[in-house]
Amino acid sequence: MKLDLLLICLAVGISVPASDAGVTEEQMWAAGKLMRDVCLPKFPKVSVEVADGIKNGKIPNSKDTNCYINCVLEMMQAIKKGKFQVEASLKQMDVLLPESYKAEYRQGIAACKDSTVGLKNAPNCDPAQALLSCLKSNIKVFVFP
């Protein structure tokens, strides 16, 4: 998974900055598109229209959409085996988001730190859906590929 993220960053010209400089919105969306292009074919029951709906904040609750969301969140290193990876998410946020998004995302991540607690990942990827729904509710400028 870390290799996938590194390859995505290299493909869109994102380097891991020594400071918290972040990336441009164009680079952010390009990295997100690559993640989406990896995960969407793994879940053929999730149409492009449904994925676009998720991108726009309409988060359905079904096994296929939840597992698609889980795939993307795993690529972002935000979730692992159904557990929210708070520290890894904060680090990835610094790499994958423009500076203007970071303060609000830090607050959203803090608000959602317990959103996956007590949820079982198998067989329906429920923690991913819960996490993304929480983030959507707590971050005004919602971003998901």
From TrEMBL:
CDD domains per the UniProt record, alphabetical: PBP_GOBP
Keywords: Disulfide bond, Secreted, Signal
GO cellular component: extracellular region
The UniProt record lists the keyword Protease: no
GO BP annotations, alphabetical order: olfactory behavior; sensory perception of smell
Signal peptide positions (record): 1-21
Pfam family, one: PBP_GOBP
PANTHER family: GENERAL ODORANT-BINDING PROTEIN 19A
Protein name, per record: Blast:General odorant-binding protein 19a
Lineage of the species this protein comes from: Eukaryota, Metazoa, Ecdysozoa, Arthropoda, Hexapoda
